[in-house]
Amino acid sequence: MSVLTKENIVLGAEVGNKEEAIRLAGKVLVDHGYVDEVYIDKMFEREALTSTYMGNFIAIPHGTEEAKALVKKAGLSFIQVPNGVDFGAGNIVKILIGIAGKDNEHLEILSKIALVCLEEENVEKMIQATTKEEILELLNEVN
Fold first, then answer.
1. Model pTM above 0.90
2. Which listed residue (23, 42, 62, 132) is catalytic?
3. What GO MF terms are annotated (predicted)?
């Protein structure tokens, strides 16, 4: 089973603020049956605890620990925001990877994403990508 599919990728998103960006990442997860809608609230709770900004233009919004009960199956959403969105403290995010983790699957998913995103060149390719296939190719290790 694939955790990232073409249907979960949004290219060229325009969001006004961090809240809109997180809501979009969560909505993709809801729309494709990975999580219950309440999970989005848990993503905001998690963000309030500590920012999910990871550096290198990337944020990985996800729910709180107790939100795992709202996850139906493990999945990812990928949101490309070419113009960037302010995540506070001057941190600009151009890639959001929403995570719905079931059991401990999300830890493996996170570590694979981290490896891809460590390379600035990969991040730049994701920011510039014009097709969902390009994103899948870059992140295919996650699948």
1. yes
2. 62
3. kinase activity; protein-phosphocysteine-sugar phosphotransferase activity
